[in-house]
Write a structure and sequence with these properties.
Elements lengths: L1 E10 L7 E10 L2 E7 L9 E12 L1 E6 L15 H14 L3 H17 L2 E8 L2 H11 L2 E8 L8 H13 L7 E7 L7 H14 L3 E5 L3 H11 L3 H7 L7 E5 L5 H10 L2 E5 L1 H6 L7 H6 L4 E3 L4 H4 L4 H16 L7 H15 L15 E5 L11 H8 L5 E6 L2 E5 L2 E2 L4 H15 L6
Parallel strand pairs: 1-4, 5-6, 6-7, 7-8, 9-10, 10-11, 11-12
Antiparallel strand pairs: 1-2, 2-3, 4-13, 13-14, 14-15, 15-16
The structure holds zinc ion.
The site of zinc ion has 5 residues, from loops.
Length: 432
């Protein structure tokens, strides 16, 4: 099937100036065939969609998520971090079944599709259930089983993760890409990380890991090993593979040199999670200076509450301006670039831009909404004025997964009902 979509405005993300007015985009077989101004003399297609007030833009890529944690949205909010984790999240997670994780993930995909995300990097457990939900949803998923080395002395779970990768590689029309997910250097020993690095190299898998998230982590690792998280990542061989580093808030000049010299992949910032848990603000200008690729992610809904990447872009921009006192140094374009091209590049994917030959991953915002008028600066409107709720269409790998605000790939209402019912069993009903 060949499709053409005509819309009032198109933001291609090739460069900040490329805004097409009265544009059209044609796609076939999962890829963009052409994009440009409307042309009356065009070749025939199978279906034409006209959205005169639509704003077409690349879909967003969420670089760090624990999707099934939608099950814990609102559980023990505002608690101190370790109380939240140890007294509320871990006991509830211990009761999770495979089906709970399937439905929690499916609910997350509905929320992500609705708010313009087309692909996400996930770290959790029962990853077959996660992969099944991703396959059903129509989204792209870079999926890794979270590995807590301290609970895996004989590497059994690591080898299971490699087996999961072998099972799911190239599945769901190529939308699923398995990765290896060692949780963090404070829950995985250097020996464990070295074995992860070895398996990753052998199986040609990229790595997804939490690094340099909190000041506490830096102190703990300095005491335990006399090294920073980034030094540990280098010394254990992790950086010899493509690495997606979640957070990267606390890094020294030396750490950034290491990443500049050794890292393929990049740092995925989760500004809302970092703010809410009191962990700080990414030193973005320093990373930029060192040429380190930066992307954007939400982290799980257990801590961030929402998976709306539009909120994440806004927060990123605000916090950078708060931190650096130079509002012109981090622009709406920068925020949008991180959530599209930035994350995509870190994942080793070619998305994040609308051009012929690129994957047909794009979304349409309803430009008729009152808060998006006038259109003096469409990119500023997208980042500072829009929310995920303004997204009405989503196309992923050429498939229309949402049309006129309705998800086409699965029954979203059923996912809501399942999650409501299951959470009653999982969480003490009087628990905050
Ligand atoms: Zn995380």
């Amino acid at each position: 099937m060949r499709y053409r979509l005509e819309a009032g405005t198109m933001v291609t993300m090739e460069n900040a100036e490329t805004i097409i007015r009265r544009g059209q985009i044609t796609w076939d077989n999962g890829r963009i065939v052409s994009i440009g101004e409307e042309d009356s003399d065009v070749e025939p297609v199978d279906q034409v969609i006209r959205i005169p007030e639509g704003i077409v833009m690349p879909g967003l890529y969420n670089g760090h998520n624990h999707a099934a944690m939608t099950l814990f949205r609102g559980l023990a909010d505002d608690s101190p971090f370790f109380e939240w984790l140890e007294q509320h999240i871990w006991p509830a997670e211990a009761r999770l079944t495979r089906d709970d994780i399937y439905w929690g993930t499916l609910l997350a995909t509905a929320e992500m599709i609705r708010s313009g995300t087309v692909g996400f990097a996930d770290m959790y457990f029962e990853m077959d259930a996660v992969a099944e939900a991703v396959a059903v949803s129509g989204m792209r998923g870079w999926l890794s089983r979270g590995l807590v080395g301290d609970q895996d002395p004989d590497f059994q779970k690591l080898y299971e993760a490699a087996a999961f990768a072998a099972r799911w590689r190239h599945r769901a029309e190529g939308r699923i890409v398995p990765m290896l997910g060692p949780h963090a250097p404070y829950t995985c020993s250097p020996e464990y990380l070295a074995e992860v690095a070895r398996v990753a190299k052998k199986e040609n898998l990229a790595i997804h890991i939490h690094l340099a998230e909190s000041q506490d982590e830096i102190h703990t690792l300095k005491q335990r090993y006399g090294r920073s998280p980034i030094e540990l990542a280098r010394d254990t061989g992790l950086l010899q593979n493509r690495c997606l580093i979640a957070h990267g808030v606390h890094m020294s000049e030396d750490d950034m040199h290491i990443l500049a010299n050794h890292l393929s992949g990049g740092v995925v910032s989760c500004p809302i999670s970092n703010a809410k848990l009191g962990n700080g603000i990414l030193p973005y200008p320093a990373l930029l200076e060192h040429g380190i690729t930066v992307g954007l992610g939400t982290d799980g809904a257990g801590s961030t509450n929402t998976l709306d990447m539009f909120l994440e872009m806004k927060t990123m921009a605000w916090l950078q301006k708060v931190r650096n006192h130079e509002p012109h140094r981090f622009t709406a374009w920068d925020a949008l670039s991180l959530a599209t091209r930035g994350t995509s590049e870190i994942l080793g994917f070619e998305g994040g831009m609308l051009a012929p030959g690129q994957p047909a991953d794009f979304i349409v915002l309803d430009g008729a909404r009152t808060h998006l008028v006038p259109e003096l600066d469409v990119v500023a409107n997208i980042v500072y004025a829009a929310t995920g709720a303004d997204v009405t269409y989503s196309v992923i790998g050429g498939q229309i997964v949402m049309a006129e605000g309705i998800i086409t790939t699965f029954d979203e209402g059923q996912a809501r009902r399942e999650v409501r019912g299951r959470v009653r069993q999982l969480v003490d009903s009087k628990g905050r």
